[in-house]
């Protein structure tokens, strides 16, 4: 139990130190318009979440960004599994995956589409790498004994893919929020978190800007924890069946 509590305590200390650095920087600048203090941002955050449209704004962005992530996750895994079986499919998909990796966020204004573009290549590449790292001896034995692909997928590929997929999701989740909100800011999408950030930037409301940034961080971290927990439960159920 102490071992489990120690990382949490260390993270709390790191956050406290970061807040102290922030407070020191705010005091050094001495101008709220440029850098408000953590206390000012916390007070503004307390009032922001009680505003009538707060939850609607968060839900608006959350649904679209999570939708793009889910689409990238499902297609990335399915196509990686298919490419792992068919070398020709991997070659055919290579130029598309390479092109998607290079698409700039500013080229589109749809948060769903941008989130998908950021997530898909990461999930696809990590899953495919996990499939390729499967034990060759086990695969050969499964081929000799004519083990169905569904059983090979569950007992040979899944344990190998698990760390790659979880690592890819951890990276892709943060990217999906960063790129999704950026797309909302660029497109000034009405009713979104990006719109609130854009307004705060235009009117030099630095306290509002930082308060909404905190909201984005909390949503991103919470969404990441939930998705990774669900994936671990799915893998545990698959391995224990």
- Rg estimate, integer Å: 22 Å
How many angstroms separate the termini? 29 Å
Summarize model confidence as the mean pLDDT: 88
What is the H/E order? HHHHHHHHH
Reported for the largest beta sheet, the result is: none
For the secondary structure, the number of strands is: 0
Beta content comes to under 5%
Based on secondary structure, the structural category is mainly alpha
The helicity comes to: over 70%
Number of helices: 9
Shape descriptor: elongated
Contiguous low-pLDDT stretches (5 residues minimum) are none
Structure, explained:
With 241 residues, this protein is mostly helical. Helix content is 83%, strand content 0%. It is built from nine helices and no strands. It has helices at residues 2-29, 38-48, 54-85, 87-102, 111-132, 136-144, 149-187, 193-202, 206-239. Helix 3 runs antiparallel to helix 4, helix 4 (87-102) packs across helix 5 (111-132) and helix 5 runs antiparallel to helix 7. The radius of gyration is 22 Å and the shape is elongated.
Features:
single chain; mainly alpha; 0% strand; 241 residues
Helix-strand layout with pairing:
Blueprint: H1 2-29, H2 38-48, H3 54-85, H4 87-102, H5 111-132, H6 136-144, H7 149-187, H8 193-202, H9 206-239
Helix pairs in contact: 2-9, 3-4, 3-5, 3-7, 4-5, 5-7, 7-8, 7-9, 8-9
């Amino acid at each position: 139990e102490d071992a489990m509590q120690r990382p949490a305590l260390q993270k709390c200390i790191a956050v406290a130190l970061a807040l102290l650095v922030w407070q020191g920087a705010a005091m050094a600048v001495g101008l709220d318009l440029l850098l408000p203090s953590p206390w000012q941002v916390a007070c503004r955050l307390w009032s922001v979440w009680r505003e009538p449209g707060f939850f609607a704004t968060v839900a608006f962005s959350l649904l679209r960004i999570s939708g793009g992530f889910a689409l990238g996750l499902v297609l990335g895994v399915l196509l990686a599994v298919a490419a792992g079986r068919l070398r020709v499919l991997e070659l055919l998909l290579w130029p598309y995956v390479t092109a998607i990796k290079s698409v700039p966020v500013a080229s589109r204004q749809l948060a769903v589409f941008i989130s998908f573009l950021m997530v898909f290549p990461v999930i696809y590449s990590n899953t495919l790498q996990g499939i390729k790292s499967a034990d060759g001896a086990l695969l050969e034995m499964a081929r000799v004994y004519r083990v169905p692909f569904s059983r090979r997928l569950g007992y040979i590929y899944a344990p190998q893919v698990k760390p790659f997929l979880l690592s890819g999701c951890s990276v892709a989740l943060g990217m999906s929020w960063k790129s999704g909100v950026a797309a909302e800011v660029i497109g000034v999408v009405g009713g979104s978190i990006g719109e609130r950030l854009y307004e705060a930037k235009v009117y030099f409301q630095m306290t509002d800007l930082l308060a909404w940034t905190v909201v984005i961080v909390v949503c991103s971290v919470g969404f990441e924890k939930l998705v990774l927990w669900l994936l671990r439960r799915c893998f545990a159920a698959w391995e224990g069946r």
